[in-house]
TrEMBL record:
It comes from Paramoeba aestuarina. This is Cell differentiation protein rcd1. GO terms for cellular component: CCR4-NOT complex. PANTHER family: CCR4-NOT TRANSCRIPTION COMPLEX SUBUNIT 9 (PTHR12262). One of its GO terms (biological process) is mRNA catabolic process. Belongs to the CNOT9 family. Gene3D superfamilies: Leucine-rich Repeat Variant. Residues 46-95 have a biased composition (Basic residues). Residues 96-105 have a biased composition (Low complexity).
Length: 396
C-alpha cells in the first residue's frame, strides 16, 4: 500500500512538471492580465496618436481654407475696385462718345477714325446681343436707315463688329445694295445730303470690315473696294459728293494703314493711283490729305515703289501732282499736315536711284527758296523730314 501511495505521488509530480500553469494559476493569471493591460495601453496610445494626426490634418485643412477664403476676399475686393474703375471710365467717356455720334450724324468721319486709331472697348454680352439685333434690322427696309446710323456710331467702340457684319446673313449684300443704289445719282450729279449721309454710314461699316484682321482678306478677295471707285471718280465739289469721296477714301486708307503687301498688290491691279492723283489736285484739303496718305503708303511698299518708278509716265504723273501741291501749299495758312505727307512721298521716291536722279533737277523751288521757313519754325518734325529729303538729294 505504501508503494502504491509513493507511485501516485510520483505521477502527480510528473503531471505538474508537464503542466506548469496548474502549478501557478494565480501568477499566470496575473501575467495574462498584465499582458492584456499592456496591449490595451498600446492600442490606446495608437488610437491617441491617430487622433492627433487627424487633428493636425484638420488644422492644416482649416489653415488652407482660411488662406483660400482670404484669397477670395482679395479677388472680390479687386473685382469691386475694377468695376468701380470701369464705371468711372464709362462715365468719363460717355460725353466724348455722344460728341462723336453728333459729329458722325452731321459729317461721317472716315478719315478721322483712320488717323486717330482709337482702341475699341470690350462690351458686355447684353450690348453684343443688342448689336446683333441692330444688325438684323438691316434686313428690314423700314428699319435699315436707323440701323445704319446706329451701327456707324458704334463701329469704333464694339470690338468684334467687323466679323459680326461679315458673317451675318445678308448684311454685306445690304451694304452693297445701298452703295449701288445711288450710282444713278452720280452722273449727272443729283446726290443730296440725306442720301449722301445714308450711304456714308454704309461705307463707314465697310471701313470697319476693311480694318479688322479677320475680315480684311475676304473683303479683298470679294473685290469690294471696286464698288467704291465710281464715288472716287466723281468731280462735283458739292458737300454731299465731298463727303462721299472722303468716306470712300477712308475705306481705302483703312486698308493701306495695315502695311499688308497683299493690299498693295490688289490696289495696284485696280488702278487706284490715277483716282488718288486727281483727288490730290482737285479735292478739299481733307480729301487731298487722305488721298496723299494712300499714295504714300503704296510708295512705302517695295512693290508699290517699283511699280511707280518702272515706267517714266507713272513717275512723271505722280511727281507732277506733288509739285503742283507744293506750289499750292505755299499760299495755305496751315499746310503742315498735308505738306508732311507730300514730303514723305518725295523721300520714298528718292530711295529709288533712277527716281532720285530725276528728282534732283525737278525738286519744287519752294523747298529751296525758304517759302516754308515760317512753317518749319513752328513744326520741328516737318523741318526734320524736309532736311532728310535735301540730304538724300545732296542739296545740303
Amino acid at each position: 500500500q505504501q508503494e502504491k501511495e509513493q507511485q501516485q505521488e510520483q505521477e502527480q509530480q510528473q503531471e505538474q512538471h508537464h503542466h506548469p500553469h496548474h502549478q501557478f494559476p494565480e501568477q499566470q493569471q496575473h501575467l495574462y492580465h498584465q499582458d492584456q493591460q499592456h496591449q490595451q495601453h498600446e492600442e490606446q496610445q495608437h488610437h491617441h496618436h491617430h487622433q492627433h494626426q487627424q487633428h493636425q490634418h484638420q488644422h492644416q485643412q482649416h489653415q488652407q481654407h482660411q488662406q483660400h477664403h482670404q484669397h477670395h476676399q482679395q479677388q472680390h475686393h479687386h473685382q469691386q475696385h475694377h468695376q468701380q474703375h470701369h464705371q468711372q471710365h464709362q462715365q468719363h467717356h460717355q460725353p466724348h462718345q455722344q460728341q462723336q455720334s453728333q459729329q458722325l450724324h452731321t459729317a461721317p468721319q472716315g478719315y478721322g477714325g483712320l488717323m486717330l486709331g482709337e482702341m475699341p472697348q470690350q462690351h458686355p454680352s447684353e450690348e453684343i446681343s443688342r448689336i446683333h439685333r441692330v444688325v438684323y434690322d438691316l434686313l428690314d427696309p423700314e428699319l435699315r436707315e436707323n440701323a445704319l446710323l446706329d451701327l456707324s456710331k458704334r463701329r469704333e467702340s464694339v470690338l468684334d463688329l467687323a466679323p459680326i457684319l461679315w458673317y451675318s446673313f445678308g448684311t454685306i449684300t445690304v451694304l452693297l445694295r445701298e452703295i449701288v443704289g445711288i450710282y444713278p445719282l452720280l452722273n449727272p450729279p443729283k446726290l443730296k445730303a440725306h442720301a449722301s449721309n445714308r450711304v456714308c454710314n454704309a461705307l463707314a461699316l465697310l471701313q470697319c470690315v476693311a480694318s479688322h484682321k479677320e475680315t480684311r482678306t475676304p473683303f479683298l478677295s470679294a473685290h469690294i473696294p471696286l464698288y467704291l471707285y465710281p464715288f472716287l471718280n466723281t468731280t462735283s465739289k458739292t458737300r454731299p459728293f465731298e463727303y462721299l469721296r472722303l468716306t470712300s477714301l477712308g475705306v481705302i486708307g483703312a486698308l493701306v494703314k495695315i502695311d499688308d503687301p497683299e493690299v498693295i498688290r490688289f490696289l495696284l491691279s485696280t488702278e487706284i493711283i490715277p483716282l488718288c492723283l486727281r483727288i490730290m489736285e482737285t479735292g478739299s484739303e481733307l480729301s487731298k490729305t487722305v488721298a496723299t496718305f494712300i499714295v504714300q503708303k503704296i510708295l512705302h511698299d517695295d512693290t508699290g515703289l517699283d511699280y511707280i518708278c518702272q515706267a517714266y509716265e507713272r513717275f512723271y504723273a505722280v511727281t507732277t501732282v506733288l509739285n503742283n501741291m507744293v506750289a499750292a501749299l505755299v499760299k495755305s495758312s496751315s499746310p503742315q499736315r498735308l505738306l508732311k505727307h507730300v514730303i514723305r512721298c518725295y523721300i520714298r521716291l528718292a530711295d529709288n536711284r533712277r527716281a532720285r536722279d530725276a528728282l534732283k533737277p525737278a525738286l519744287p523751288e519752294p523747298f529751296r527758296d525758304g517759302s516754308f521757313d515760317e512753317v518749319l519754325k513752328e513744326d520741328n518734325s516737318l523741318k526734320q523730314w524736309l532736311g532728310r529729303l535735301m540730304m538724300q538729294l545732296n542739296e545740303m
